Amino acid sequence: MIDELHVQDVALIRDATIRPAAPGLTVLTGETGTGKSALLSSVKLLMGERADASAVREGAGSLTVEGRFYLAGGDPDGCVVRRRVEAQGRSRVEIDGSMASVRELASGVGATIDLCGQHEHQRLLTQANHADMIDAWAGEGTTVALAAYREALDAAKAAAAELARVREDARAASERIDEAEFTLRRIDEVDPREGEYEELEEKLPRIEHAEALMAAAGGAYEALSGDEGARDAISGAIDALRDGARYDTKLGELADALESSLIDIEDVASDLRDYRDDVEYDPSELDRMQSRMSALRGLMRTYGPGMEDVLARRDRAKRVVEAAHDGGKAERRAQKAAEQAEALLARRADELDAARGEAAPRFAEEVTAQMATLQMGSASLEVALERLPRSQWTREGASRVELLYRPAAGLTPRPLRRIASGGEVSRVMLSIKVVLGEADGTDTLVFDEVDAGVGGATAVALGELLARLARTHQVIVVTHLAQVAVHADRHYLVSKSAGDVPETTIGPIEGDERVHEVARMLSGDATEASLAHAREMLAL
Question: Does the model's pTM come out above 0.85?
Protein backbone atom coordinates (compact mmCIF):
# COMPACT_ATOMS: atom_id res chain seq x y z
CA MET A 1 0.00 0.00 0.00
CA ILE A 2 1.08 3.58 -0.60
CA ASP A 3 2.34 5.17 2.62
CA GLU A 4 3.39 8.47 1.05
CA LEU A 5 3.50 9.97 -2.45
CA HIS A 6 5.72 12.98 -3.25
CA VAL A 7 5.47 14.77 -6.62
CA GLN A 8 7.71 17.51 -8.04
CA ASP A 9 7.35 19.38 -11.35
CA VAL A 10 4.66 17.18 -12.87
CA ALA A 11 2.41 19.21 -15.24
CA LEU A 12 1.18 22.15 -13.12
CA ILE A 13 2.30 20.63 -9.81
CA ARG A 14 5.46 22.21 -8.45
CA ASP A 15 5.64 20.25 -5.19
CA ALA A 16 2.95 18.16 -3.49
CA THR A 17 2.72 15.29 -1.01
CA ILE A 18 -0.19 13.04 -0.10
CA ARG A 19 -0.40 10.32 2.54
CA PRO A 20 -3.36 8.07 1.67
CA ALA A 21 -5.20 6.09 4.32
CA ALA A 22 -4.00 2.49 4.39
CA PRO A 23 -6.38 0.78 4.31
CA GLY A 24 -9.17 3.29 3.95
CA LEU A 25 -10.74 5.74 1.54
CA THR A 26 -8.81 8.79 0.32
CA VAL A 27 -10.58 11.30 -1.96
CA LEU A 28 -9.22 14.11 -4.10
CA THR A 29 -11.65 16.85 -5.02
CA GLY A 30 -11.46 20.21 -6.72
CA GLU A 31 -12.73 22.24 -9.62
CA THR A 32 -12.48 20.84 -13.14
CA GLY A 33 -9.10 21.60 -14.70
CA THR A 34 -7.19 22.03 -11.45
CA GLY A 35 -4.75 19.23 -12.27
CA LYS A 36 -6.09 16.11 -10.58
CA SER A 37 -5.05 14.07 -13.62
CA ALA A 38 -1.40 15.04 -13.00
CA LEU A 39 -1.49 13.16 -9.73
CA LEU A 40 -2.85 10.08 -11.52
CA SER A 41 -0.02 10.41 -14.06
CA SER A 42 2.42 10.32 -11.15
CA VAL A 43 0.90 7.10 -9.85
CA LYS A 44 1.23 5.59 -13.34
CA LEU A 45 4.94 6.42 -13.37
CA LEU A 46 5.42 4.51 -10.10
CA MET A 47 3.50 1.59 -11.60
CA GLY A 48 6.10 1.32 -14.35
CA GLU A 49 4.11 2.99 -17.11
CA ARG A 50 5.82 4.65 -20.06
CA ALA A 51 7.35 8.03 -19.25
CA ASP A 52 6.16 11.09 -21.18
CA ALA A 53 8.57 14.04 -21.25
CA SER A 54 5.65 16.41 -21.97
CA ALA A 55 4.53 15.87 -18.36
CA VAL A 56 7.58 17.82 -17.09
CA ARG A 57 6.47 21.18 -15.68
CA GLU A 58 7.28 24.03 -18.04
CA GLY A 59 10.59 25.64 -17.10
CA ALA A 60 11.80 22.60 -15.13
CA GLY A 61 14.57 20.31 -16.28
CA SER A 62 12.91 17.14 -15.00
CA LEU A 63 10.06 15.75 -12.93
CA THR A 64 10.40 13.51 -9.89
CA VAL A 65 7.89 11.13 -8.35
CA GLU A 66 8.72 9.33 -5.10
CA GLY A 67 6.70 6.90 -3.08
CA ARG A 68 7.06 4.80 0.03
CA PHE A 69 5.20 1.49 -0.15
CA TYR A 70 4.49 -1.32 2.26
CA LEU A 71 4.29 -4.52 0.22
CA ALA A 72 2.98 -7.88 1.40
CA GLY A 73 5.94 -10.03 2.40
CA GLY A 74 8.33 -7.13 1.86
CA ASP A 75 10.61 -5.14 4.15
CA PRO A 76 8.68 -4.11 7.30
CA ASP A 77 10.35 -0.70 7.00
CA GLY A 78 8.80 -0.22 3.58
CA CYS A 79 10.11 0.16 0.05
CA VAL A 80 11.08 3.57 -1.35
CA VAL A 81 10.69 4.08 -5.10
CA ARG A 82 11.91 7.12 -7.03
CA ARG A 83 11.37 7.90 -10.70
CA ARG A 84 12.89 10.85 -12.50
CA VAL A 85 11.99 11.89 -16.04
CA GLU A 86 14.08 14.53 -17.81
CA ALA A 87 12.61 17.05 -20.22
CA GLN A 88 14.64 15.36 -22.97
CA GLY A 89 12.78 12.11 -22.32
CA ARG A 90 15.35 10.08 -20.38
CA SER A 91 13.91 8.17 -17.43
CA ARG A 92 15.62 6.79 -14.32
CA VAL A 93 14.28 4.41 -11.67
CA GLU A 94 15.59 3.79 -8.15
CA ILE A 95 14.28 1.22 -5.68
CA ASP A 96 15.58 1.63 -2.11
CA GLY A 97 18.40 3.82 -3.41
CA SER A 98 19.62 1.35 -6.04
CA MET A 99 19.22 1.67 -9.78
CA ALA A 100 16.43 -0.48 -11.22
CA SER A 101 14.56 -1.05 -14.46
CA VAL A 102 11.03 -0.01 -15.37
CA ARG A 103 10.22 -3.71 -15.68
CA GLU A 104 11.25 -4.31 -12.05
CA LEU A 105 9.06 -1.38 -11.04
CA ALA A 106 6.07 -2.76 -12.94
CA SER A 107 6.45 -6.29 -11.55
CA GLY A 108 6.98 -5.05 -7.99
CA VAL A 109 5.03 -1.94 -7.03
CA GLY A 110 2.94 -1.93 -10.20
CA ALA A 111 1.51 -5.37 -9.48
CA THR A 112 -0.04 -4.12 -6.22
CA ILE A 113 -1.99 -1.21 -7.77
CA ASP A 114 -5.02 -1.14 -10.06
CA LEU A 115 -5.65 2.18 -11.79
CA CYS A 116 -9.33 2.02 -12.66
CA GLY A 117 -10.78 4.25 -15.32
CA GLN A 118 -8.26 4.39 -18.15
CA HIS A 119 -8.43 1.27 -20.30
CA GLU A 120 -4.73 0.83 -20.82
CA HIS A 121 -4.12 0.45 -17.10
CA GLN A 122 -6.72 -2.18 -16.22
CA ARG A 123 -5.82 -5.74 -15.32
CA LEU A 124 -9.58 -6.27 -15.34
CA LEU A 125 -9.52 -5.79 -19.11
CA THR A 126 -6.84 -8.45 -19.63
CA GLN A 127 -8.56 -11.73 -20.42
CA ALA A 128 -5.62 -13.74 -19.03
CA ASN A 129 -6.51 -12.51 -15.52
CA HIS A 130 -10.21 -13.45 -15.62
CA ALA A 131 -9.75 -17.09 -14.63
CA ASP A 132 -7.68 -15.96 -11.61
CA MET A 133 -10.59 -13.73 -10.49
CA ILE A 134 -13.10 -16.58 -10.67
CA ASP A 135 -10.72 -18.94 -8.86
CA ALA A 136 -9.93 -16.39 -6.12
CA TRP A 137 -13.65 -15.79 -5.51
CA ALA A 138 -14.68 -19.46 -5.66
CA GLY A 139 -11.95 -20.48 -3.20
CA GLU A 140 -11.21 -24.15 -2.54
CA GLY A 141 -13.77 -25.38 -5.07
CA THR A 142 -11.58 -24.33 -8.01
CA THR A 143 -8.13 -24.08 -6.42
CA VAL A 144 -8.10 -27.81 -5.63
CA ALA A 145 -9.29 -28.63 -9.15
CA LEU A 146 -6.67 -26.27 -10.63
CA ALA A 147 -3.87 -27.87 -8.60
CA ALA A 148 -4.96 -31.36 -9.75
CA TYR A 149 -5.13 -30.16 -13.37
CA ARG A 150 -1.63 -28.66 -13.19
CA GLU A 151 -0.24 -31.86 -11.69
CA ALA A 152 -1.82 -33.87 -14.51
CA LEU A 153 -0.52 -31.38 -17.09
CA ASP A 154 3.03 -31.76 -15.77
CA ALA A 155 2.68 -35.56 -15.82
CA ALA A 156 1.39 -35.47 -19.42
CA LYS A 157 4.31 -33.27 -20.49
CA ALA A 158 6.77 -35.65 -18.81
CA ALA A 159 5.14 -38.68 -20.47
CA ALA A 160 5.22 -36.99 -23.88
CA ALA A 161 8.89 -36.10 -23.40
CA GLU A 162 9.68 -39.72 -22.45
CA LEU A 163 7.86 -41.00 -25.52
CA ALA A 164 9.82 -38.58 -27.71
CA ARG A 165 13.07 -39.77 -26.10
CA VAL A 166 12.24 -43.45 -26.62
CA ARG A 167 11.35 -42.80 -30.25
CA GLU A 168 14.58 -40.88 -30.75
CA ASP A 169 16.53 -43.76 -29.21
CA ALA A 170 14.76 -46.21 -31.53
CA ARG A 171 15.55 -44.05 -34.56
CA ALA A 172 19.15 -43.68 -33.45
CA ALA A 173 19.38 -47.43 -32.82
CA SER A 174 18.75 -48.24 -36.45
CA GLU A 175 21.30 -45.64 -37.57
CA ARG A 176 24.04 -46.01 -34.98
CA ILE A 177 23.72 -49.51 -33.57
CA ASP A 178 27.30 -50.51 -34.51
CA GLU A 179 28.77 -47.39 -32.96
CA ALA A 180 26.64 -47.77 -29.81
CA GLU A 181 27.58 -51.44 -29.38
CA PHE A 182 31.29 -50.64 -29.76
CA THR A 183 31.01 -47.76 -27.25
CA LEU A 184 29.13 -49.90 -24.73
CA ARG A 185 31.60 -52.80 -25.10
CA ARG A 186 34.61 -50.48 -24.82
CA ILE A 187 33.34 -48.82 -21.62
CA ASP A 188 32.02 -52.02 -20.06
CA GLU A 189 35.41 -53.67 -20.52
CA VAL A 190 36.75 -51.16 -18.02
CA ASP A 191 33.44 -51.04 -16.08
CA PRO A 192 34.01 -47.73 -14.25
CA ARG A 193 32.14 -47.15 -11.02
CA GLU A 194 30.71 -43.79 -10.01
CA GLY A 195 33.19 -42.08 -7.67
CA GLU A 196 35.96 -44.58 -8.45
CA TYR A 197 38.18 -42.09 -10.26
CA GLU A 198 38.03 -39.58 -7.40
CA GLU A 199 38.83 -42.36 -4.91
CA LEU A 200 41.91 -43.38 -6.89
CA GLU A 201 43.05 -39.76 -7.15
CA GLU A 202 43.05 -39.60 -3.36
CA LYS A 203 44.66 -42.98 -2.58
CA LEU A 204 47.19 -43.48 -5.36
CA PRO A 205 49.70 -40.77 -4.30
CA ARG A 206 49.95 -42.35 -0.82
CA ILE A 207 50.80 -45.78 -2.23
CA GLU A 208 53.19 -44.40 -4.85
CA HIS A 209 55.14 -42.51 -2.16
CA ALA A 210 54.67 -45.00 0.69
CA GLU A 211 58.40 -45.36 1.40
CA ALA A 212 58.88 -41.58 1.66
CA LEU A 213 55.83 -41.25 3.91
CA MET A 214 57.04 -44.03 6.24
CA ALA A 215 60.49 -42.42 6.39
CA ALA A 216 59.04 -39.03 7.20
CA ALA A 217 56.72 -40.33 9.92
CA GLY A 218 59.42 -42.64 11.38
CA GLY A 219 62.05 -39.90 11.44
CA ALA A 220 59.70 -37.49 13.15
CA TYR A 221 58.74 -40.16 15.71
CA GLU A 222 62.37 -40.87 16.55
CA ALA A 223 63.08 -37.14 16.90
CA LEU A 224 60.33 -36.90 19.45
CA SER A 225 60.45 -40.21 21.32
CA GLY A 226 63.77 -41.85 20.47
CA ASP A 227 66.88 -41.92 22.67
CA GLU A 228 67.85 -38.34 23.48
CA GLY A 229 64.72 -37.20 21.62
CA ALA A 230 62.60 -34.13 22.40
CA ARG A 231 60.49 -36.00 24.96
CA ASP A 232 63.53 -37.00 27.09
CA ALA A 233 65.00 -33.49 26.84
CA ILE A 234 61.77 -31.85 27.94
CA SER A 235 61.31 -34.37 30.77
CA GLY A 236 64.81 -33.45 32.01
CA ALA A 237 63.96 -29.75 31.84
CA ILE A 238 60.80 -30.34 33.87
CA ASP A 239 62.74 -32.23 36.57
CA ALA A 240 65.28 -29.38 36.80
CA LEU A 241 62.53 -26.80 37.13
CA ARG A 242 60.79 -28.83 39.83
CA ASP A 243 64.01 -28.80 41.91
CA GLY A 244 64.32 -25.03 41.53
CA ALA A 245 60.65 -24.51 42.33
CA ARG A 246 61.42 -25.24 45.99
CA TYR A 247 62.99 -21.79 46.10
CA ASP A 248 60.89 -19.88 43.53
CA THR A 249 57.31 -20.79 42.60
CA LYS A 250 57.75 -19.10 39.21
CA LEU A 251 59.86 -22.07 38.10
CA GLY A 252 57.01 -24.37 39.13
CA GLU A 253 54.64 -22.47 36.82
CA LEU A 254 57.10 -22.89 33.95
CA ALA A 255 57.39 -26.60 34.72
CA ASP A 256 53.57 -26.90 34.52
CA ALA A 257 53.59 -25.22 31.11
CA LEU A 258 56.27 -27.62 29.85
CA GLU A 259 54.31 -30.58 31.19
CA SER A 260 51.32 -29.47 29.13
CA SER A 261 53.54 -29.29 26.01
CA LEU A 262 54.98 -32.71 26.83
CA ILE A 263 51.50 -34.21 26.79
CA ASP A 264 50.89 -32.74 23.31
CA ILE A 265 54.27 -34.09 22.10
CA GLU A 266 53.45 -37.56 23.40
CA ASP A 267 50.08 -37.47 21.59
CA VAL A 268 51.72 -36.43 18.33
CA ALA A 269 54.40 -39.10 18.72
CA SER A 270 51.74 -41.75 19.25
CA ASP A 271 49.87 -40.62 16.12
CA LEU A 272 53.12 -40.67 14.11
CA ARG A 273 53.85 -44.24 15.24
CA ASP A 274 50.36 -45.36 14.23
CA TYR A 275 50.63 -43.58 10.87
CA ARG A 276 54.05 -45.20 10.17
CA ASP A 277 52.72 -48.65 11.03
CA ASP A 278 49.59 -48.18 8.87
CA VAL A 279 51.41 -47.17 5.70
CA GLU A 280 51.77 -50.21 3.47
CA TYR A 281 53.90 -50.60 0.43
CA ASP A 282 52.44 -53.28 -1.83
CA PRO A 283 54.01 -53.30 -5.31
CA SER A 284 51.26 -55.50 -6.74
CA GLU A 285 48.50 -53.20 -5.38
CA LEU A 286 50.36 -50.19 -6.74
CA ASP A 287 50.54 -51.79 -10.20
CA ARG A 288 46.84 -52.63 -10.07
CA MET A 289 45.79 -49.08 -9.09
CA GLN A 290 48.08 -47.46 -11.67
CA SER A 291 46.70 -49.70 -14.38
CA ARG A 292 43.16 -48.89 -13.28
CA MET A 293 43.86 -45.16 -13.31
CA SER A 294 45.38 -45.45 -16.79
CA ALA A 295 42.28 -47.28 -18.07
CA LEU A 296 39.92 -44.71 -16.62
CA ARG A 297 41.91 -41.82 -18.08
CA GLY A 298 41.82 -43.57 -21.45
CA LEU A 299 38.02 -43.60 -21.30
CA MET A 300 37.98 -39.93 -20.31
CA ARG A 301 40.19 -38.99 -23.25
CA THR A 302 37.82 -40.75 -25.61
CA TYR A 303 34.42 -40.03 -24.07
CA GLY A 304 35.16 -37.24 -21.55
CA PRO A 305 36.31 -34.76 -20.55
CA GLY A 306 35.01 -35.92 -17.15
CA MET A 307 34.14 -39.33 -15.74
CA GLU A 308 30.51 -38.19 -15.47
CA ASP A 309 30.56 -37.73 -19.27
CA VAL A 310 31.87 -41.28 -19.70
CA LEU A 311 29.07 -42.70 -17.55
CA ALA A 312 26.46 -40.62 -19.40
CA ARG A 313 27.85 -41.86 -22.73
CA ARG A 314 27.53 -45.45 -21.52
CA ASP A 315 23.91 -44.85 -20.50
CA ARG A 316 23.07 -43.42 -23.93
CA ALA A 317 24.77 -46.26 -25.76
CA LYS A 318 22.99 -48.80 -23.57
CA ARG A 319 19.59 -47.27 -24.37
CA VAL A 320 20.34 -47.35 -28.09
CA VAL A 321 21.39 -50.99 -27.97
CA GLU A 322 18.36 -51.97 -25.90
CA ALA A 323 16.06 -50.07 -28.24
CA ALA A 324 17.52 -51.96 -31.21
CA HIS A 325 16.81 -55.33 -29.62
CA ASP A 326 13.51 -54.84 -27.73
CA GLY A 327 11.24 -55.07 -30.80
CA GLY A 328 9.50 -51.76 -30.02
CA LYS A 329 8.43 -52.76 -26.50
CA ALA A 330 9.82 -49.60 -24.88
CA GLU A 331 8.03 -47.40 -27.39
CA ARG A 332 4.74 -49.22 -26.84
CA ARG A 333 5.11 -48.83 -23.07
CA ALA A 334 5.89 -45.13 -23.43
CA GLN A 335 2.99 -44.68 -25.85
CA LYS A 336 0.58 -46.33 -23.40
CA ALA A 337 1.88 -44.18 -20.51
CA ALA A 338 1.44 -41.01 -22.60
CA GLU A 339 -2.12 -41.99 -23.55
CA GLN A 340 -2.99 -42.71 -19.92
CA ALA A 341 -1.50 -39.36 -18.83
CA GLU A 342 -3.53 -37.55 -21.51
CA ALA A 343 -6.71 -39.32 -20.45
CA LEU A 344 -6.15 -38.29 -16.83
CA LEU A 345 -5.40 -34.74 -17.93
CA ALA A 346 -8.67 -34.59 -19.89
CA ARG A 347 -10.59 -35.72 -16.78
CA ARG A 348 -8.85 -33.12 -14.63
CA ALA A 349 -9.59 -30.45 -17.27
CA ASP A 350 -13.28 -31.44 -17.22
CA GLU A 351 -13.31 -31.21 -13.42
CA LEU A 352 -11.71 -27.76 -13.48
CA ASP A 353 -14.16 -26.53 -16.11
CA ALA A 354 -17.05 -27.93 -14.08
CA ALA A 355 -15.86 -26.15 -10.92
CA ARG A 356 -15.44 -22.85 -12.76
CA GLY A 357 -18.70 -23.38 -14.66
CA GLU A 358 -20.53 -23.74 -11.36
CA ALA A 359 -18.89 -20.70 -9.75
CA ALA A 360 -18.93 -18.35 -12.75
CA PRO A 361 -22.72 -17.68 -12.94
CA ARG A 362 -22.90 -17.02 -9.21
CA PHE A 363 -19.94 -14.63 -9.42
CA ALA A 364 -21.51 -12.82 -12.40
CA GLU A 365 -24.85 -12.59 -10.60
CA GLU A 366 -23.29 -10.95 -7.52
CA VAL A 367 -21.32 -8.48 -9.65
CA THR A 368 -24.46 -7.64 -11.66
CA ALA A 369 -26.35 -6.96 -8.42
CA GLN A 370 -23.65 -4.49 -7.38
CA MET A 371 -23.76 -2.86 -10.81
CA ALA A 372 -27.51 -2.36 -10.48
CA THR A 373 -26.97 -0.13 -7.43
CA LEU A 374 -24.70 2.13 -9.53
CA GLN A 375 -27.30 3.28 -12.07
CA MET A 376 -26.16 0.87 -14.76
CA GLY A 377 -29.72 -0.05 -15.77
CA SER A 378 -30.09 -3.59 -17.05
CA ALA A 379 -26.36 -3.92 -17.75
CA SER A 380 -24.92 -7.21 -16.58
CA LEU A 381 -21.74 -9.22 -16.33
CA GLU A 382 -21.41 -12.66 -17.84
CA VAL A 383 -18.63 -15.25 -17.88
CA ALA A 384 -17.82 -17.19 -21.04
CA LEU A 385 -15.96 -20.51 -20.90
CA GLU A 386 -14.65 -21.83 -24.22
CA ARG A 387 -12.80 -25.16 -24.45
CA LEU A 388 -9.53 -24.74 -26.35
CA PRO A 389 -7.74 -27.20 -28.62
CA ARG A 390 -5.33 -29.46 -26.72
CA SER A 391 -2.32 -27.64 -28.18
CA GLN A 392 -3.47 -24.40 -26.50
CA TRP A 393 -3.91 -25.75 -22.97
CA THR A 394 -1.85 -23.87 -20.41
CA ARG A 395 -1.23 -24.03 -16.68
CA GLU A 396 -4.28 -21.77 -16.24
CA GLY A 397 -6.62 -24.36 -17.68
CA ALA A 398 -7.98 -26.06 -20.78
CA SER A 399 -10.61 -23.40 -21.46
CA ARG A 400 -10.61 -19.72 -22.20
CA VAL A 401 -12.32 -17.80 -19.38
CA GLU A 402 -13.47 -14.28 -20.23
CA LEU A 403 -15.67 -11.71 -18.51
CA LEU A 404 -18.26 -10.23 -20.87
CA TYR A 405 -20.23 -7.00 -20.44
CA ARG A 406 -23.83 -6.76 -21.64
CA PRO A 407 -24.72 -3.02 -21.83
CA ALA A 408 -28.48 -3.74 -21.70
CA ALA A 409 -30.77 -6.74 -21.53
CA GLY A 410 -31.43 -6.84 -25.27
CA LEU A 411 -27.86 -6.30 -26.43
CA THR A 412 -25.09 -8.77 -27.20
CA PRO A 413 -22.45 -9.25 -24.49
CA ARG A 414 -18.97 -8.00 -25.45
CA PRO A 415 -15.50 -8.39 -23.94
CA LEU A 416 -14.80 -5.87 -21.21
CA ARG A 417 -11.93 -4.36 -23.18
CA ARG A 418 -14.47 -3.08 -25.71
CA ILE A 419 -16.39 -0.98 -23.20
CA ALA A 420 -16.13 2.56 -24.53
CA SER A 421 -16.93 4.52 -21.37
CA GLY A 422 -14.30 5.01 -18.71
CA GLY A 423 -17.09 5.57 -16.20
CA GLU A 424 -18.70 2.25 -17.10
CA VAL A 425 -15.51 0.26 -16.81
CA SER A 426 -14.69 1.93 -13.50
CA ARG A 427 -18.07 0.99 -12.08
CA VAL A 428 -17.78 -2.58 -13.35
CA MET A 429 -14.32 -2.75 -11.77
CA LEU A 430 -15.69 -1.37 -8.51
CA SER A 431 -18.48 -3.96 -8.49
CA ILE A 432 -16.02 -6.79 -9.14
CA LYS A 433 -13.62 -5.59 -6.47
CA VAL A 434 -16.42 -5.37 -3.90
CA VAL A 435 -17.55 -8.92 -4.71
CA LEU A 436 -13.97 -10.25 -4.59
CA GLY A 437 -13.34 -8.58 -1.23
CA GLU A 438 -10.20 -9.86 0.47
CA ALA A 439 -9.77 -12.56 -2.21
CA ASP A 440 -8.50 -9.85 -4.54
CA GLY A 441 -4.71 -9.76 -4.64
CA THR A 442 -4.46 -6.00 -5.23
CA ASP A 443 -3.56 -3.68 -2.34
CA THR A 444 -4.34 -0.25 -3.80
CA LEU A 445 -7.20 0.78 -6.07
CA VAL A 446 -7.18 4.21 -7.74
CA PHE A 447 -10.52 5.21 -9.30
CA ASP A 448 -10.93 7.91 -11.94
CA GLU A 449 -14.22 8.68 -13.73
CA VAL A 450 -16.07 6.25 -11.46
CA ASP A 451 -18.71 8.95 -10.83
CA ALA A 452 -19.22 9.91 -14.50
CA GLY A 453 -22.93 10.34 -15.17
CA VAL A 454 -23.89 9.46 -11.60
CA GLY A 455 -26.14 11.44 -9.30
CA GLY A 456 -28.96 11.23 -6.78
CA ALA A 457 -29.53 7.95 -4.98
CA THR A 458 -26.92 6.26 -7.15
CA ALA A 459 -24.27 8.71 -5.91
CA VAL A 460 -25.16 7.76 -2.34
CA ALA A 461 -24.87 4.05 -3.23
CA LEU A 462 -21.54 4.68 -4.95
CA GLY A 463 -20.13 6.37 -1.86
CA GLU A 464 -21.28 3.52 0.36
CA LEU A 465 -19.81 0.94 -2.02
CA LEU A 466 -16.43 2.67 -2.08
CA ALA A 467 -16.44 2.93 1.71
CA ARG A 468 -17.19 -0.78 1.94
CA LEU A 469 -14.34 -1.61 -0.45
CA ALA A 470 -11.99 0.58 1.61
CA ARG A 471 -12.39 -1.77 4.57
CA THR A 472 -10.17 -4.34 2.82
CA HIS A 473 -8.19 -2.13 0.39
CA GLN A 474 -6.47 1.19 0.10
CA VAL A 475 -8.85 3.15 -2.15
CA ILE A 476 -7.96 6.49 -3.76
CA VAL A 477 -10.75 8.26 -5.67
CA VAL A 478 -10.82 11.38 -7.80
CA THR A 479 -14.42 12.52 -7.51
CA HIS A 480 -16.85 15.36 -8.13
CA LEU A 481 -19.53 13.86 -5.89
CA ALA A 482 -20.12 15.11 -2.37
CA GLN A 483 -21.85 11.78 -1.64
CA VAL A 484 -18.49 10.06 -2.21
CA ALA A 485 -16.28 12.69 -0.55
CA VAL A 486 -18.10 12.54 2.80
CA HIS A 487 -17.07 8.90 3.25
CA ALA A 488 -13.36 9.71 3.04
CA ASP A 489 -10.94 8.80 5.79
CA ARG A 490 -8.63 11.44 4.27
CA HIS A 491 -9.72 14.31 2.03
CA TYR A 492 -7.32 16.26 -0.22
CA LEU A 493 -8.27 19.46 -2.05
CA VAL A 494 -6.72 20.08 -5.46
CA SER A 495 -6.67 23.77 -6.47
CA LYS A 496 -4.98 25.89 -9.12
CA SER A 497 -3.62 29.39 -8.71
CA ALA A 498 -4.41 32.12 -11.24
CA GLY A 499 -1.77 33.95 -13.26
CA ASP A 500 0.39 33.58 -16.34
CA VAL A 501 2.04 30.44 -14.92
CA PRO A 502 -0.67 28.62 -12.97
CA GLU A 503 0.33 26.17 -10.26
CA THR A 504 -1.58 23.22 -8.83
CA THR A 505 -1.51 22.69 -5.08
CA ILE A 506 -2.73 19.65 -3.17
CA GLY A 507 -3.37 19.70 0.54
CA PRO A 508 -5.37 17.85 3.20
CA ILE A 509 -8.52 19.50 4.50
CA GLU A 510 -10.45 18.96 7.71
CA GLY A 511 -13.07 20.68 9.82
CA ASP A 512 -14.59 23.85 8.34
CA GLU A 513 -12.42 23.63 5.22
CA ARG A 514 -13.88 20.24 4.43
CA VAL A 515 -17.41 21.44 5.16
CA HIS A 516 -16.95 24.31 2.66
CA GLU A 517 -15.53 21.95 -0.01
CA VAL A 518 -18.46 19.52 0.37
CA ALA A 519 -20.86 22.45 0.19
CA ARG A 520 -19.20 23.65 -3.02
CA MET A 521 -19.52 20.18 -4.49
CA LEU A 522 -23.22 20.15 -3.60
CA SER A 523 -24.28 23.55 -4.99
CA GLY A 524 -21.28 25.23 -6.60
CA ASP A 525 -20.82 27.70 -3.74
CA ALA A 526 -20.97 27.84 0.06
CA THR A 527 -24.48 29.08 0.91
CA GLU A 528 -25.98 28.66 4.35
CA ALA A 529 -28.22 25.89 3.00
CA SER A 530 -25.37 24.02 1.31
CA LEU A 531 -23.16 24.40 4.38
CA ALA A 532 -25.90 22.99 6.61
CA HIS A 533 -26.43 20.13 4.18
CA ALA A 534 -22.68 19.44 4.08
CA ARG A 535 -22.47 19.34 7.88
CA GLU A 536 -25.40 16.94 8.00
CA MET A 537 -23.85 14.60 5.41
CA LEU A 538 -20.49 14.59 7.17
CA ALA A 539 -22.13 13.93 10.52
CA LEU A 540 -24.01 10.95 9.09
Answer: no
